[in-house]
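Re: that backbone. Tokens:
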């Protein structure tokens, strides 16, 4: 059995593809692709995926609202992938970086 709490992975993005990402998948597509990749990599290890629209962040979560505002105001390249509060990818995410961050929390590939 797992002895650690499931990590939260947030993908911040928007319906509109960011101007510098025209050839890349949308934020929603990235979210779905990332979730599928992580479920394959860590099949029996739970984690929690959240999609945050940077233009309509959840009103009841100050941390998510604040980061969404920063992404918009500072023109970050999105999607932005955050694992347990740590930004691990901006723009086209690299699985290797996300896996490395998850492994800090005890996740192991099967």
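Recovered sequence:
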């Amino acid at each position: 059995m797992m002895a650690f709490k499931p990590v939260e992975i947030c993908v911040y993005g928007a319906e509109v593809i960011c101007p510098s990402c025209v050839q890349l998948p949308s934020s929603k597509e990235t979210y779905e692709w990332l979730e599928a990749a992580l479920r394959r990599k860590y099949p029996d290890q739970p984690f929690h995926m959240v999609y945050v629209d940077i233009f309509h962040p959840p009103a009841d979560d100050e941390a998510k609202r604040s980061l969404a505002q920063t992404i918009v105001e500072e023109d970050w390249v999105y999607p932005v992938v955050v694992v347990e509060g740590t930004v691990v990818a901006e723009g086209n995410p690299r699985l290797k970086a996300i896996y490395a961050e998850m492994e800090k929390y005890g996740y192991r590939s099967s």
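The CA atoms of residues 62 and 90 lie 21 Å apart. The two ends are 14 Å apart (CA to CA).
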